[in-house]
Amino acid sequence: MKALPFGGAFLSYFWQMKILVTGANGFVGNYLVRQLLQNGQPVVATSKGDCRLEFDLKDNFEYVSLDFTDIEQVKKVFKEHRPQMVVHAGAMGRPDECEEKRELAFKINVTGTENLLHAAASLHSHFIFLSTDFVFAGDKLMYKEEDKTGPVNYYGTTKLLAEEQVLQYPFDKTIIRTILVYGKPLTGRNNILTIVKEKLENGETYHVYDDQVRTPTYVEDLCAGIIASIEKRATGIFHIGGKDVLTPFDMAYKVAEYLKLDKSLLRKVTRENFSQPALRPLLTGLDISKARNELGFNPISFEEGLKKTFHC
Ligand SMILES: NC(=O)c1ccc[n+]([C@@H]2O[C@H](COP(=O)([O-])OP(=O)(O)OC[C@H]3O[C@@H](n4cnc5c(N)ncnc54)[C@H](OP(=O)(O)O)[C@@H]3O)[C@@H](O)[C@H]2O)c1
């Protein structure tokens, strides 16, 4: 991390930077844009489709439809808006979809990232890339930033290839790896908590893995971690995750218990008896000591996240 030469004054200078966010219509992107705007930060929000962000915070906010797999569109938007910082949150993030549509997954997750890096380099912008615990093989708990990678599915492979491109970027760059993000989806993809609620409320059974281990991340904590990295102008790789170690079955069970839904509809499954198109890493979990020490990152517990998901 770079030292800030003029302390607070320099910090406030950076806080006035124009930040371009990709994947703004996504689950994480929506919360991130919201939190940046609440902090008074100018944002150019971009996503492939039309704007699906709904809030009153219109000052400092612009929305641009941008397909980042199209280099000409990317160049045009960067030339017009000249962001000093880019947070690349857009992706094809569903592992099964990536496995089944490999060519498209490569185009979105790898070529798209290369296009953005190319345009960002022309402005010397700071580039922040959102990555995943799925870059790891799943053979140990609580991975550290410097641990050996080795993805077991195509989603993880594309995210690792993109990470490698980001690491080659000649200007400031930050890679934020996160893990099983949950919360109330305002737009973008669903997550295990909201899927369990929907299934059990409809009286449907739900098969959920009990042989995988994760440290689930509350979405607003992830955004606070990203914003802390921006404020501190941190560079390098950071792991941002939750503090509780749980299996997906544990999470589903806690949701059912909390919402007083029928727990008997939950079916414990393992890699041996239930398969999906993309193999999942078994044991991950992210060691967040570096983010705690260098960014002041301090996530809430899963119990607190559960309450926020269903009551905020
Ligand atoms: N959610 C998790 O559990 C999790 C875990 C680890 C890492 N991550 C990473 O965190 C980031 C955000 O994930 P998320 O959960 O917010 O994903 P998400 O809800 O699926 O949102 C992804 C967004 O990417 C946009 N996008 C896709 N292709 C695009 C293209 N060609 N051009 C421009 N935009 C495009 C989509 O925009 P439109 O909707 O406008 O089409 C979509 O809203 C991703 O990098 C993901 O790999 C997520």
Topology, element by element:
Elements: H1 7-15, E1 19-22, H2 27-38, E2 43-47, E3 61-65, H3 71-81, E4 85-88, H4 95-100, H5 102-123, E5 126-132, H6 154-168, E6 173-178, E7 181-182, H7 192-201, E8 206-209, E9 217-218, H8 219-231, E10 236-240, H9 248-258, E11 266-269, H10 289-295, H11 302-311
Parallel strand pairs: 1-2, 1-4, 2-3, 4-5, 5-6, 6-10, 7-9, 8-11
Helix pairs in contact: 2-8, 3-5, 5-6, 7-9, 9-11
The protein binds NADP nicotinamide-adenine-dinucleotide phosphate.
What is the gist of this entry?
This protein has 312 residues and is of the alpha/beta class. It is 40% helix and 15% strand.
Report on the structure:
This protein is α/β, with parallel strands linked by helices and 312 residues long. The chain has a domain at 8-180 and 218-241: Rossmann fold (3-Layer(aba) Sandwich), CATH 3.40.50. The protein is 40% helix and 15% strand. The chain has eleven helices and eleven strands. It has helices at residues 7-15, 27-38, 71-81, 95-100, 102-123, 154-168, 192-201, 219-231, 248-258, 289-295, 302-311; strands spanning 19-22, 43-47, 61-65, 85-88, 126-132, 173-178, 181-182, 206-209, 217-218, 236-240, 266-269. The strands form three sheets. It has a seven-stranded parallel beta sheet, sandwiched between helices. It has a two-stranded parallel ribbon with strand order 7-9. Helix 9 packs across helix 11. The radius of gyration is 19 Å and the shape is globular. NADP nicotinamide-adenine-dinucleotide phosphate (NAP) is lined by residues 22-23, 25-29, 47-49, 66-69, 89-91, 93, 108, 112, 130, 132, 159, 178-181, 188-189.
